[in-house]
Fold this protein.
Amino acid sequence: MRLALAVVAAVVPVGCGADLERSAMSADAIDGLPIWEGHALEVFDDNIEPAAVGFSLEGPSPRSDRFLRERAQTADVVARVRVSTVTVDMVGERSTYHLGVQVIDPPLATPRVPDRAFELHIRPTSRAFGIAKAVDARLRGLTFIAFIRRFAGEAGELEFHWHLSPDTAEVTAAVKEAVVLGELSAP
């Protein structure tokens, strides 16, 4: 009976989209990925910039974002994305938002993963939680400039961490400039 359950657990994916991605990834695919800690927590901060949802009419210049260049040069996916789904899981008083996002062609940098759809998690501890709670289902249909990167989780599972910026011509130009500078400085 235990063997049968183990086989079923290994074959049948359970949970949300990120779990599906994890079950498809082998342990070898996780090897070599960084752990989401230290400086990476600041760069890929699971945050939505307030200006990206209209909470600020005058956001800071993208060129003043001290992490934009690093995000653009180290993310696995740098692209315009559209939020296709917004779901909320409630466990007691705690809620977690799940944003299903689709990459809009063409990407702003050569992607390092073939995925075109991602599920971004916004937990109560995420920086974007306040924005997600305030905007809620109205996030559906919005577009952003997304910086998404893979990390190795504590238990050896694949995790995606991200940052969403406003989908503006100014941000797009700054990202393209950062990508070109990264390509020029590559060995």
